[in-house]
Input
Amino acid sequence: MQASQHSKAIATGALAGVFFSSTYILNSFLASTGGHWAWTTGLRTTLLVLLLGLLLQMQGQLKQLLQVMGTTIWVWIGWGSVAFGLTYFFLTYGAMFGPGWLVAGVFQFTIVAGILIAPFIYKDGRARIPVRALLLSVLILMGIVLMQWSQREGSYTTGQLLTCVGLVLTAAFLWPLANRKLMLHLEVTQQKLSAMQRVAGTAIGSLPFNLLLMGYGYSEAGWPSEQQVLAVSVIAVSSGVLGCIFFFKAMHMVRTDGAAMAAVEATQSLEILVTVIGEVLLLGIAWPGWSGNFGMMLIMGGLLLYSVPARRKVLALE
Output
């Protein structure tokens, strides 16, 4: 039963990665067409709150969520601002300095980041860093590096690319930190929320931060264009609603197993594959060469080792 649960969580996380990819592709598109990053970040979460609020109201779950949030509102505002505020601020702003494949690729460091921060978050067995999970995450990152190397000849300067990498690496640590801290908060307080309620609560908590961002965007660039609103709406539905719900559901399924949570986080490496395909088809970038293709094989190989529970005994290194 546990093996089946882990496999379902891996598949659910992989599906979330596909939907998350829309963020990188459309952020690159908006950056190239002049959409201000502050509006892109702020609108995304505001639209997400409206969509999820409507869905929860229709299901009769909105009142319960607001009651739960009301008991510890500053926890939701704090970690919500990190998850749907700072994380997406760094990702969106980073898209101004590098292509979508670079943003998607560097953000995969969140796979290792989620493992490395565990000792600072948990006080039980989840605090241990699983050697197997860490090694497989490194394998996936090697594949990502090869994909990046295949795309090294581009139109961005070295300084721009380094800025992009620095911003996205910061986001890569903030995302698993906020996600795990909120799950731990609900665990400690013994409050029961569905995946959709958790996403909505995180988004609602980030509203003060994102309203400030939109105010800044207006002072810098005025109102957003219809094209930007439309693109951000697609991001909100695909990445914000579908992607986050599937990802949070997958994490909830394996919330008591540190290695399994790392495996779910590793499914996000699929985002770079989907992003490259999307940018090739929609934005006309060149397809990766042999090193990029080999990198894809390493990524898929790492995911395969993660997702086949029977191989855990073979790889029991710790």
In short: The chain has one domain: 2-310. The longest helix spans residues 2-33. Residues 2-310 form one domain. The chain has a mean pLDDT of 83.
